[in-house]
Amino acid sequence: METKKQTRKTSSKTKELILEVAREIAAQKGVGQLTLEAVAEKAGISKGGLLYHFPGKKELIIALMDSYVAHLSQELYPEVEKFKGHPQALVLGFINWYKKFNGIAATNRTWGAAVFAVQSFDPQLMEPLHNWYRQLFEKIRGSGPDSLDTATAILAIEGLFMLSLYNLDHLTTEEKSRIIQHIEDRLLMRELSPKSLSE
């Protein structure tokens, strides 16, 4: 007989499987083609089993968005932590994150692009991502007297991430390295007159 602990473990694995399959379908076919029937069939479970975890498509997409936002935090903040105490820890963390995958890992690009298509399905489902960026910009505003430099650097790196996300990155590896180095040199290592984002 299964113990409660084993049941919870099995339930958690099933939920993760559902999310993984839903992510694949959304990435390959788009959010519009993400149906509960398609997810259940590909996951090899009954529709009732799926509905036990996610009562509807909206709840499934919310879980996918929450998972994506958690992924962003799991990638960024450990990198930021490596520079704890540095006045530009946030920028250095972003740079490390970008360098880690040379943008966005190829396996995440189609799914990352699909995330933004959620807006056409229901704009309210983008709220977890909006919250992530609100918190990011609060951190930028609170980064001290040089918050304008922090914002400029992070927005530049975000632009590189977005080009990578949509497969629009036509820069050479050397060109991207020079851009990143320019950010580090100009905004982190030169003596600049600090400017606040709110000035």
TrEMBL record:
<keyword id="KW-0238">DNA-binding</keyword>
<dbReference type="Pfam" id="PF17937">
    <property type="entry name" value="TetR_C_28"/>
</dbReference>
<keyword id="KW-0805">Transcription regulation</keyword>
<dbReference type="GO" id="GO:0000976">
    <property type="term" value="F:transcription cis-regulatory region binding"/>
</dbReference>
<dbReference type="InterPro" id="IPR041479">
    <property type="entry name" value="TetR_CgmR_C"/>
</dbReference>
<dbReference type="GO" id="GO:0003700">
    <property type="term" value="F:DNA-binding transcription factor activity"/>
</dbReference>
<keyword id="KW-0804">Transcription</keyword>
<dbReference type="Pfam" id="PF00440">
    <property type="entry name" value="TetR_N"/>
</dbReference>
<feature type="domain" description="HTH tetR-type">
    <location>
        <begin position="12"/>
        <end position="72"/>
    </location>
</feature>
<dbReference type="InterPro" id="IPR001647">
    <property type="entry name" value="HTH_TetR"/>
</dbReference>
<dbReference type="InterPro" id="IPR009057">
    <property type="entry name" value="Homeodomain-like_sf"/>
</dbReference>
<feature type="DNA-binding region" description="H-T-H motif">
    <location>
        <begin position="35"/>
        <end position="54"/>
    </location>
</feature>
<dbReference type="InterPro" id="IPR050109">
    <property type="entry name" value="HTH-type_TetR-like_transc_reg"/>
</dbReference>
<protein>
    <submittedName>
        <fullName>Transcriptional regulator, TetR family</fullName>
    </submittedName>
</protein>
